[in-house]
Amino acid sequence: MQIELLLDQLPLWLFYLMTVVIVFLAVLGGFRLGSYRRKNKKSETEAPVGTIVGAMLGLLAFILAFTFGMASSLFDARKKLLLDEVNAIGTAFLRADFLPDPQRMETQILLRKYVDIRAEVDRHSEKFQQTLVDSEALHDQLWSQVTAISKQANGSVLLGLYTQALNEVFDLHSSQVTVGFQYRIPGIIWLALYFVTIMAMAAVGYHFGISEAGNYWITLVLALAFSAVIILIADLDRPTEGLLKVSQKPMYQLHQKMSPSAK
Asked: How far apart are CA 27 and CA 214, in angstroms?
Protein backbone atom coordinates (compact mmCIF):
# COMPACT_ATOMS: atom_id res chain seq x y z
CA MET A 1 0.00 0.00 0.00
CA GLN A 2 1.26 3.52 -0.79
CA ILE A 3 2.56 5.66 2.05
CA GLU A 4 0.01 8.42 1.51
CA LEU A 5 -2.79 5.85 1.72
CA LEU A 6 -1.39 4.56 5.00
CA LEU A 7 -1.25 8.10 6.37
CA ASP A 8 -4.85 8.67 5.26
CA GLN A 9 -5.93 5.92 7.65
CA LEU A 10 -4.90 8.16 10.56
CA PRO A 11 -7.31 10.88 11.76
CA LEU A 12 -5.67 14.29 11.76
CA TRP A 13 -5.63 14.51 15.56
CA LEU A 14 -3.80 11.17 15.76
CA PHE A 15 -1.48 12.27 12.93
CA TYR A 16 -0.60 15.36 15.00
CA LEU A 17 -0.08 13.36 18.18
CA MET A 18 2.15 10.90 16.34
CA THR A 19 4.22 13.76 14.91
CA VAL A 20 4.59 15.40 18.32
CA VAL A 21 5.83 12.11 19.81
CA ILE A 22 8.31 11.57 16.94
CA VAL A 23 9.73 15.10 17.21
CA PHE A 24 9.87 14.94 21.02
CA LEU A 25 11.69 11.61 20.99
CA ALA A 26 14.14 12.85 18.34
CA VAL A 27 15.06 15.91 20.45
CA LEU A 28 15.22 13.81 23.61
CA GLY A 29 17.41 11.20 21.95
CA GLY A 30 19.81 13.85 20.68
CA PHE A 31 19.87 15.48 24.12
CA ARG A 32 20.70 12.20 25.83
CA LEU A 33 23.51 11.52 23.37
CA GLY A 34 24.91 15.04 23.79
CA SER A 35 24.78 14.77 27.59
CA TYR A 36 26.51 11.40 27.47
CA ARG A 37 29.36 12.71 25.32
CA ARG A 38 29.73 15.83 27.48
CA LYS A 39 29.94 13.75 30.67
CA ASN A 40 32.53 11.47 29.07
CA LYS A 41 34.74 14.44 28.11
CA LYS A 42 34.35 14.06 24.36
CA SER A 43 35.99 16.69 22.20
CA GLU A 44 32.97 18.38 20.57
CA THR A 45 32.68 22.13 21.04
CA GLU A 46 29.50 24.14 20.81
CA ALA A 47 30.49 26.35 17.85
CA PRO A 48 30.87 23.65 15.14
CA VAL A 49 27.83 21.79 16.43
CA GLY A 50 25.82 25.01 16.41
CA THR A 51 26.78 25.58 12.77
CA ILE A 52 25.62 22.10 11.82
CA VAL A 53 22.36 22.58 13.75
CA GLY A 54 21.76 25.85 11.87
CA ALA A 55 22.33 24.11 8.54
CA MET A 56 19.98 21.27 9.49
CA LEU A 57 17.26 23.70 10.55
CA GLY A 58 17.71 25.61 7.30
CA LEU A 59 17.27 22.37 5.35
CA LEU A 60 14.18 21.54 7.41
CA ALA A 61 12.72 24.99 6.74
CA PHE A 62 13.33 24.47 3.01
CA ILE A 63 11.57 21.11 2.81
CA LEU A 64 8.70 22.39 4.98
CA ALA A 65 8.26 25.37 2.66
CA PHE A 66 8.49 23.12 -0.40
CA THR A 67 5.89 20.68 0.92
CA PHE A 68 3.60 23.45 2.12
CA GLY A 69 3.83 25.11 -1.30
CA MET A 70 2.86 21.84 -2.99
CA ALA A 71 -0.14 21.34 -0.68
CA SER A 72 -1.19 24.96 -1.09
CA SER A 73 -1.01 24.72 -4.90
CA LEU A 74 -3.26 21.64 -4.88
CA PHE A 75 -5.68 23.44 -2.57
CA ASP A 76 -5.81 26.44 -4.92
CA ALA A 77 -6.34 24.10 -7.89
CA ARG A 78 -9.32 22.49 -6.12
CA LYS A 79 -10.87 25.92 -5.51
CA LYS A 80 -10.43 26.94 -9.15
CA LEU A 81 -11.90 23.69 -10.43
CA LEU A 82 -14.92 24.13 -8.18
CA LEU A 83 -15.59 27.61 -9.57
CA ASP A 84 -15.08 26.39 -13.13
CA GLU A 85 -17.49 23.52 -12.52
CA VAL A 86 -20.12 25.83 -11.04
CA ASN A 87 -19.88 28.11 -14.08
CA ALA A 88 -20.06 25.17 -16.49
CA ILE A 89 -23.13 23.69 -14.80
CA GLY A 90 -24.81 27.09 -14.77
CA THR A 91 -24.10 27.53 -18.49
CA ALA A 92 -25.44 24.06 -19.30
CA PHE A 93 -28.57 24.76 -17.26
CA LEU A 94 -29.23 28.00 -19.17
CA ARG A 95 -28.55 26.41 -22.55
CA ALA A 96 -30.97 23.62 -21.71
CA ASP A 97 -33.63 26.20 -22.66
CA PHE A 98 -32.59 25.55 -26.27
CA LEU A 99 -33.93 21.99 -26.03
CA PRO A 100 -37.47 21.12 -27.07
CA ASP A 101 -40.11 20.15 -24.54
CA PRO A 102 -40.40 17.81 -22.68
CA GLN A 103 -36.62 17.19 -22.84
CA ARG A 104 -35.92 20.73 -21.64
CA MET A 105 -37.71 20.23 -18.32
CA GLU A 106 -36.29 16.74 -17.86
CA THR A 107 -32.75 17.99 -18.48
CA GLN A 108 -33.07 20.86 -16.04
CA ILE A 109 -34.44 18.48 -13.39
CA LEU A 110 -31.42 16.22 -13.91
CA LEU A 111 -29.02 19.17 -13.67
CA ARG A 112 -30.68 20.32 -10.42
CA LYS A 113 -30.26 16.81 -9.05
CA TYR A 114 -26.63 16.84 -10.17
CA VAL A 115 -26.00 20.06 -8.25
CA ASP A 116 -27.75 18.56 -5.20
CA ILE A 117 -25.30 15.66 -5.28
CA ARG A 118 -22.26 17.87 -5.81
CA ALA A 119 -23.27 20.21 -2.98
CA GLU A 120 -23.48 17.28 -0.56
CA VAL A 121 -19.81 16.29 -1.03
CA ASP A 122 -18.68 18.73 1.67
CA ARG A 123 -21.38 17.76 4.16
CA HIS A 124 -21.04 14.01 3.76
CA SER A 125 -17.44 13.38 2.77
CA GLU A 126 -17.67 9.79 4.00
CA LYS A 127 -20.14 9.12 1.14
CA PHE A 128 -17.73 10.37 -1.50
CA GLN A 129 -17.55 7.11 -3.47
CA GLN A 130 -21.33 6.90 -3.65
CA THR A 131 -21.39 10.52 -4.81
CA LEU A 132 -19.09 9.61 -7.69
CA VAL A 133 -21.34 6.71 -8.70
CA ASP A 134 -24.46 8.90 -8.59
CA SER A 135 -22.76 11.70 -10.54
CA GLU A 136 -21.61 9.37 -13.30
CA ALA A 137 -25.09 7.83 -13.49
CA LEU A 138 -26.51 11.30 -14.11
CA HIS A 139 -23.85 11.87 -16.77
CA ASP A 140 -25.16 8.81 -18.60
CA GLN A 141 -28.75 10.02 -18.37
CA LEU A 142 -27.90 13.51 -19.59
CA TRP A 143 -25.88 12.16 -22.49
CA SER A 144 -28.63 9.71 -23.44
CA GLN A 145 -31.01 12.64 -23.70
CA VAL A 146 -28.62 14.53 -25.97
CA THR A 147 -28.23 11.46 -28.18
CA ALA A 148 -32.00 11.05 -28.47
CA ILE A 149 -32.55 14.74 -29.27
CA SER A 150 -29.75 14.79 -31.86
CA LYS A 151 -31.58 12.16 -33.90
CA GLN A 152 -34.56 14.48 -34.16
CA ALA A 153 -32.68 17.79 -34.61
CA ASN A 154 -29.65 16.75 -36.61
CA GLY A 155 -27.16 19.59 -37.14
CA SER A 156 -28.90 22.08 -34.82
CA VAL A 157 -26.56 24.90 -33.78
CA LEU A 158 -28.43 25.44 -30.51
CA LEU A 159 -28.16 21.76 -29.64
CA GLY A 160 -24.45 21.98 -30.39
CA LEU A 161 -24.06 24.85 -27.89
CA TYR A 162 -25.81 22.85 -25.19
CA THR A 163 -23.74 19.75 -25.98
CA GLN A 164 -20.54 21.79 -25.72
CA ALA A 165 -21.55 23.07 -22.27
CA LEU A 166 -22.49 19.57 -21.13
CA ASN A 167 -19.15 18.16 -22.31
CA GLU A 168 -17.40 20.82 -20.26
CA VAL A 169 -19.38 19.74 -17.18
CA PHE A 170 -18.24 16.14 -17.72
CA ASP A 171 -14.61 17.17 -18.27
CA LEU A 172 -14.52 19.33 -15.16
CA HIS A 173 -16.02 16.51 -13.11
CA SER A 174 -13.14 14.27 -14.20
CA SER A 175 -10.65 17.02 -13.38
CA GLN A 176 -12.23 17.52 -9.96
CA VAL A 177 -11.87 13.82 -9.16
CA THR A 178 -8.31 13.59 -10.47
CA VAL A 179 -6.81 16.85 -9.19
CA GLY A 180 -9.00 17.18 -6.13
CA PHE A 181 -8.87 13.65 -4.78
CA GLN A 182 -6.11 11.68 -6.54
CA TYR A 183 -3.28 14.21 -6.86
CA ARG A 184 -1.72 14.28 -3.41
CA ILE A 185 1.66 14.91 -1.84
CA PRO A 186 3.73 11.84 -2.84
CA GLY A 187 4.65 9.40 -0.11
CA ILE A 188 8.38 9.79 -0.80
CA ILE A 189 8.12 13.49 0.08
CA TRP A 190 6.42 12.61 3.37
CA LEU A 191 9.28 10.20 4.10
CA ALA A 192 11.88 12.86 3.27
CA LEU A 193 10.05 15.43 5.40
CA TYR A 194 9.95 13.16 8.44
CA PHE A 195 13.54 12.01 7.93
CA VAL A 196 14.87 15.57 7.79
CA THR A 197 12.66 16.56 10.74
CA ILE A 198 14.00 13.71 12.88
CA MET A 199 17.62 14.47 11.95
CA ALA A 200 17.24 18.22 12.56
CA MET A 201 15.47 17.76 15.89
CA ALA A 202 18.05 15.20 16.99
CA ALA A 203 20.78 17.71 16.12
CA VAL A 204 19.01 20.39 18.17
CA GLY A 205 18.74 17.98 21.10
CA TYR A 206 22.41 17.05 20.75
CA HIS A 207 23.36 20.72 20.92
CA PHE A 208 21.21 21.11 24.03
CA GLY A 209 23.01 18.13 25.55
CA ILE A 210 26.58 19.27 25.04
CA SER A 211 25.77 22.82 26.14
CA GLU A 212 23.48 21.93 29.06
CA ALA A 213 20.95 24.37 27.66
CA GLY A 214 17.81 22.28 27.15
CA ASN A 215 14.98 21.05 29.30
CA TYR A 216 11.80 19.04 28.82
CA TRP A 217 9.55 22.08 28.47
CA ILE A 218 11.64 23.57 25.66
CA THR A 219 11.66 20.18 23.96
CA LEU A 220 7.86 19.92 24.24
CA VAL A 221 7.31 23.43 22.87
CA LEU A 222 9.64 22.65 19.96
CA ALA A 223 7.77 19.42 19.22
CA LEU A 224 4.36 21.14 19.34
CA ALA A 225 5.47 23.99 17.06
CA PHE A 226 7.04 21.89 14.32
CA SER A 227 4.23 19.36 14.48
CA ALA A 228 1.68 22.17 14.00
CA VAL A 229 3.30 23.11 10.68
CA ILE A 230 3.38 19.49 9.52
CA ILE A 231 -0.28 18.91 10.45
CA LEU A 232 -1.21 22.08 8.57
CA ILE A 233 0.37 20.57 5.46
CA ALA A 234 -1.50 17.30 6.04
CA ASP A 235 -4.77 19.20 6.47
CA LEU A 236 -4.27 21.03 3.16
CA ASP A 237 -3.49 17.72 1.48
CA ARG A 238 -6.76 16.06 2.57
CA PRO A 239 -9.67 17.37 0.47
CA THR A 240 -12.53 15.89 2.52
CA GLU A 241 -11.18 16.03 6.07
CA GLY A 242 -10.01 18.65 8.52
CA LEU A 243 -10.55 22.38 8.90
CA LEU A 244 -9.03 23.50 5.59
CA LYS A 245 -11.57 22.34 3.01
CA VAL A 246 -12.66 24.07 -0.17
CA SER A 247 -15.88 25.91 0.57
CA GLN A 248 -18.88 24.62 -1.35
CA LYS A 249 -20.64 27.99 -1.04
CA PRO A 250 -20.55 28.68 -4.83
CA MET A 251 -22.28 25.32 -5.40
CA TYR A 252 -24.92 26.14 -2.78
CA GLN A 253 -25.55 29.52 -4.46
CA LEU A 254 -25.91 27.82 -7.84
CA HIS A 255 -28.37 25.38 -6.25
CA GLN A 256 -30.50 28.33 -5.09
CA LYS A 257 -30.41 29.98 -8.53
CA MET A 258 -31.46 26.75 -10.23
CA SER A 259 -34.40 26.07 -7.94
CA PRO A 260 -37.82 26.36 -9.67
CA SER A 261 -38.88 29.13 -7.26
CA ALA A 262 -35.94 31.28 -8.41
CA LYS A 263 -37.31 31.50 -11.95
From this structure: 10
